[in-house]
Design the sequence.
């Protein structure tokens, strides 16, 4: 005991004399641990940790994730035409109610087993799926629908599993109750890293997770201002042509709805182009095969706005022409709403902004991002019968007829004629102002760029 006590006293005395060195060493170790915790400099494996915002279950894992796990039967080209992918080809009958797809012969699941048609399951309402042979999938529709192949862009999996055809496979799924919190994926390709995807309930929590080093990449973030002064973070942006930021007018509103076409046109003409954003002057993206480059153009045209307002004055009581117009906006678009409201005030209107998180039941004008399909069939957005998704309550007979015909016709040139006329009729009536296609933002640590590019194929 005495020997042990003596050694302790000698060690204590030595440490006391050398306390400056020991304190320096302790602080250095603590600093290294903090840096490692935040930035994971000393990774023991080749991996990348990705964060996303949203609550998901196994049946609705976001496309950014499932596209790493599998492929789809078809794909889109640069003009949004549908092309074969896992399928070699397809054929349809004259009334577009039966579609037969042929699979490639050499397709394998990620576990190495051969793919046969009956492995695949498709949960598409009002569609009966059958498998005439090991390479053929047949879809029988109740009604004609020529854009049907565009519904098959979602990656496919072996029936009842998450086994796909992509370079990655799921190693582990972690949940909180029914919602996924984290997905761990390994690659069948030695050149690719492990991928860990963590899901956050809000952008605020996701940004905190990034700051704490839980993830080194954030996908699809709308607010990137937080990272503007962060020297360790970089931002990639690409235009998202699957969404369009739009001002929708309520066609039931006594001021801007109904027969107030000239007034809506005046508001559309005076609305400014949003700097730094990809202009949308049409319900279709300019890359689409159905986009009409000669269609009516609005935005940032004071002269046309004045002429349209003059027409409105001849059709409406004077007291209405200086009425209050409330523009409802989502929180992320409040800055854009302020620009629009300021432009409307120059026409003499008392334009005010209201910010709401969801889609209100009642509004005069509503600024929101809308999802648009890859095919030009926008029946659900603009046809009068679509009361849940036609938010403006548009009811234009010519628009309805074009949309009805467009989804029955198989020939592309004939479909294009219908969609050109649809654009003309819709823009003339001006139930909406098409502003821009938003950016898809990716925030990442600079040190992770090479692995990120490998995983997401961003070059």
Sequence:
């Amino acid at each position: 005991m005495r020997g042990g006590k003596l050694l302790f006293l000698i060690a204590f005395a030595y440490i006391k004399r050398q306390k400056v060195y020991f304190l320096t060493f302790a602080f250095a170790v603590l600093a290294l641990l903090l840096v490692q915790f935040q930035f994971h400099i000393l990774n023991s494996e080749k991996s990348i940790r990705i964060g996303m915002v949203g609550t998901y279950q196994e049946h609705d894992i976001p496309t950014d994730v499932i596209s790493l796990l599998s492929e789809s039967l078809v794909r889109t080209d640069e003009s949004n035409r549908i092309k074969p992918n896992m399928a070699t080809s397809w054929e349809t009958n004259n009334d577009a109610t039966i579609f037969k797809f042929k699979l490639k012969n050499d397709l394998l699941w990620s576990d190495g087993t051969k793919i046969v048609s009956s492995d695949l399951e498709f949960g598409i309402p009002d569609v009966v799926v059958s498998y005439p042979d090991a390479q053929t999938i047949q879809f029988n529709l109740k009604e004609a629908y020529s854009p049907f192949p565009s519904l098959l862009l979602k990656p496919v999996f072996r029936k009842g599993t998450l086994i796909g055809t992509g370079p990655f496979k799921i190693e582990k799924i972690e949940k909180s109750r029914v919602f996924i919190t984290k997905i761990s994926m390994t690659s069948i390709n030695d050149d690719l890293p492990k991928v860990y995807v963590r899901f956050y309930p809000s952008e605020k929590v996701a940004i905190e997770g990034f700051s704490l080093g839980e993830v080194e990449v954030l996908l699809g973030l709308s607010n990137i201002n937080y990272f503007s002064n962060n020297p360790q973070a970089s931002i990639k942006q690409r235009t998202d042509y699957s969404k369009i930021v739009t001002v929708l007018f309520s066609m039931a509103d006594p001021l801007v709805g109904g027969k107030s076409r000239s007034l809506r046109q005046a508001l559309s003409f005076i609305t400014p182009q949003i700097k730094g954003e990809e202009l949308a002057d049409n319900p279709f993206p300019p890359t689409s095969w159905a986009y009409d480059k000669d269609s009516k153009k609005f935005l940032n045209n004071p002269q046309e706005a004045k002429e349209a307002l003059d027409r409105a004055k001849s059709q409406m009581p004077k007291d209405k022409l200086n009425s209050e117009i409330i523009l409802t906006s989502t929180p992320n678009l409040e800055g854009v709403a302020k620009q629009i409201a300021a432009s409307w005030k120059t026409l003499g209107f008392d334009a005010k902004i209201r910010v709401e998180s969801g889609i209100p039941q009642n509004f005069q004008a509503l600024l929101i991002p809308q999802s648009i399909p890859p095919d030009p069939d926008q029946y659900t957005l603009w046809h009068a019968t679509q009361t849940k998704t036609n938010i403006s309550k548009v009811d234009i007979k010519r628009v309805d007829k074009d949309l009805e015909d467009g989804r029955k016709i198989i020939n592309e040139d004939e479909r294009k004629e219908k969609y050109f006329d649809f654009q003309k009729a819709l823009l003339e009536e001006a139930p909406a102002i098409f502003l821009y296609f938003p950016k898809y933002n990716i925030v990442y640590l600079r040190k992770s760029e090479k692995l990120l590019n490998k995983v997401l194929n961003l070059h």
Observations:
- Confidence is low (pLDDT under 50) at residues 35-44.
- The CA atoms of residues 68 and 166 lie 6 Å apart.
- The radius of gyration is 28 Å.
